[in-house]
Specification:
Organism: Rhizobium miluonense
GO molecular function, one term: acetyl-CoA carboxylase activity
InterPro entries: AcCoA_biotinCC, Biotin_BS, Biotin_Carboxyl_Carrier/Decarb, Biotin_lipoyl, Single_hybrid_motif
Strand order of the largest sheet: 3-10-8-5
Helix content: 10-25%
Shape: elongated
Radius of gyration: 20 Å
Distance between the termini: 47 Å
Largest sheet: 4 strands, antiparallel
CATH topology of the largest domain: OB fold (Dihydrolipoamide Acetyltransferase, E2P)
Pathway: Lipid metabolism; fatty acid biosynthesis
CATH superfamily of the largest domain: RNA polymerase II/Efflux pump adaptor protein, barrel-sandwich hybrid domain
Order of helices and strands: HEEHEEEEEEEE
Function: This protein is a component of the acetyl coenzyme A carboxylase complex; first, biotin carboxylase catalyzes the carboxylation of the carrier protein and then the transcarboxylase transfers the carboxyl group to form malonyl-CoA.
Length: about 150
């Protein structure tokens, strides 16, 4: 196995959620491990909550709650995004569809492996990426669920 293939495999593991990869070619076996880093603690934005008194404050708080309830679905890995289960079939979801937590939204193909991207929460699809059959990078916005 040549060095460029090994580097490609290392890059793939670094950009994906894969924690271990073993590849054998001819008489050479390469094992790549990745230990995910610890996530930073999430601080609550509503630590000091007070009740709004003026209509402007109530409106501002309502729009903040709407923004807070929107979850952005991002690409977990680099690969080719497929919005439908197979060519010529209807997409998994459309804008306005109501989805359940865990429902498949997309498939990302990386190194001939098809990875499902599931809804992190139940809600309505508010926005979708235009990419279909093209490459997406790790962290690219795929959908917004409210």
């Amino acid at each position: 196995m040549d060095l460029s293939k090994i580097k490609t495999l290392i890059d793939f593991v670094g950009r994906s959620n894969v924690t271990e990869l073993t590849v054998t070619e001819k008489d050479v076996t390469v094992r790549i491990f990745c230990t995910p880093g610890k996530a930073a603690p999430i601080a609550s934005a509503k630590a000091l909550e007070r009740s709004p008194t003026s209509p402007a404050e109530r409106s501002r708080d309502a729009s903040a709650d709407t923004q807070a309830s929107i979850v952005t679905v991002k690409a977990p890995i680099f690969g080719v995004l497929h919005r439908a289960p197979a060519p010529g079939q209807a997409p998994f979801v459309k804008i306005g569809d109501v989805v359940e937590e865990g429902q498949t939204l997309f498939i990302i193909e990386a190194m001939k492996v098809f990875n499902k991207v599931a809804a992190p929460q139940a809600g309505r699809i508010m926005r979708l990426t235009e990419v279909d059959g093209g490459e997406v990078e790790t962290g690219d916005m795929l959908a917004e669920i409210a």
